[in-house]
Amino acid sequence: MRTARVGDAPALLVAGTTSDAGKSVVATGLCRWLARQGVKVAPFKAQNMSLNSVVAPDGAEIGRAQATQAAACGIEPTAAMNPVLLKPGGDRRSQVVVRGRPVGEADAVTYRDFKDRLREVAVESLAELRADYDVVICEGAGSPAEINLRAGDIANMGLARAADLPVLVVGDIDRGGVFAALHGTLALLEPADQALIAGFVINKFRGAPELLEPGLDMLRRLTGRPVHGVLPWLDGLWLDVEDSLALSVDRGPMRAPLGAQTLRVAVVRVPRISNFTDIDALTVEPGVDVRFVTAPHELADADLVILPGSRATVADLAWMRERGLADAVAARAARGLPVLGICGGYQMLAGRIRDDVESGAGEVDGLGLLPARVVFAPGKTLGRPRGTAYGQEVRAYEIHHGAIEVDFARPGTEPFLDGCRSGAVWGTTWHGALENDAFRRAFLADVAAHAGRDFACAPGTDFAAERTARLDALGDLVEANTDTGALWRLLESGAPRGLPVVPPAPVF
């Protein structure tokens, strides 16, 4: 086992040329690789903008990606691992969550008022982790070359400068133009920021390595920085993605069904979809075909329609009505075809919704498919509940402002987890319920019976084992395709010194 230096533990920042370039993949792979070396390692993301979040054991709401990275490290997630979480509620405003608790709403302009305090929180949180762990792997946000935002940056070069971190920049070659993106990212940084860029990693490469080598050599000569790794394209590696950019990415082939038929699941991709990672467990189930849909005709052949979480329930419900999706879902329910609502999706299924918090719309009609009424409260409910359904234990987590009252006196209405069920319509605020294997199989069997499908659940599907296998695959990816010796030296020696400045470097 290699040991980190004593005291202020080494840390490394993984930045990217763009969103979805592969920062999370590389950071998670590094975490897994180090943990398998016996290193006590922790993840960190100073500021995360994502609608996929989770409740940590300490009760804090943090980005789902950081919880997965903590799993890669073999540790439980904490508030310090993602001290600032922004949850967009529209094109201009986001809820600001600090150390796991919401502190207010802000737009791009008013958010500047938060920045000084948030920078302190980020630096303090990183220092906390560096005091408790041997190594901290930090993940940036967006691109470090967003020069219009550099003055208030707390997640990329602002953090690297404050904590004197060496920085790896990841570029996605599958998008095209990766050499220009890597060189341009470096060139747009001011000299003091450039000094911390230690090297590059190229992600999603497919093809003959010898064809890439001349470009790597030229990039080294132009920038004075090494390429520390070229990661090959691999399908279906990543669960728990941060944002809806990744919904179009192939997350692995559907596994062949055990029965005669597949089970077709249509997930309505509302504009402000949140916690769509709830669907991940279905994608690893043999014979379950999961699609994200935005039009009524895409529901026609679905055996199960899922209304997922939403950061803006009332606005997304209005969007569904405008597109005819609300009528299509109601028509399905009238025919006894299965519909599942999770959190915001469950709220949409209610008869009435009172929202003076998220949208300020007041009282509006829900879809009326469940005998329930929703009232949004200023305080957010955060928890890690347990319960039973179909005779199976269920562990989950909940994150919501809406409180739901169910009229169980309505004929045909019965409890379902924390929510209710009426015929073939189910609703719950619990996220992560489908990750419970026995419950998921029982639920899918019930769905198949209602849909009239000859579908058999696989008795041995283990979602936790699937996630572990993918984390190991990410660790293997980093170990086999990066210069791990050079990465060790970066961790042991810290930020590089004396690297050349690449023109044209702006002066801020």
From TrEMBL:
Keywords: Cobalamin biosynthesis, Glutamine amidotransferase, Ligase
CobB/CobQ-like glutamine amidotransferase domain sequence ranges: 264-438
Domain of life: Bacteria
A single MF term (Gene Ontology): ABC-type vitamin B12 transporter activity
Active-site residue numbers: 343, 431
Gene Ontology BP terms: cobalamin biosynthetic process
Residue ranges occupied by any CobQ/CobB/MinD/ParA nucleotide binding domain in the UniProt entry: 13-237
UniProt entry tagged with the keyword Lyase: no
Database matches in InterPro entries: Class_I_gatase-like (IPR029062), CobQ/CobB/MinD/ParA_Nub-bd_dom (IPR002586), CobQ_GATase1 (IPR033949), CobQ_N (IPR047045), CobQ_synth (IPR004459), GATase_3 (IPR011698), P-loop_NTPase (IPR027417)
Physiological role: Catalyzes amidations at positions B, D, E, and G on adenosylcobyrinic A,C-diamide. NH(2) groups are provided by glutamine, and one molecule of ATP is hydrogenolyzed for each amidation.
Family: Belongs to the CobB/CobQ family. CobQ subfamily.
Protein name from the UniProt record: Cobyric acid synthase
Organism in which the protein naturally occurs: Spinactinospora alkalitolerans
Organism phylogeny: Bacteria, Bacillati, Actinomycetota, Actinomycetes, Streptosporangiales
Recorded name of the encoding gene: cobQ
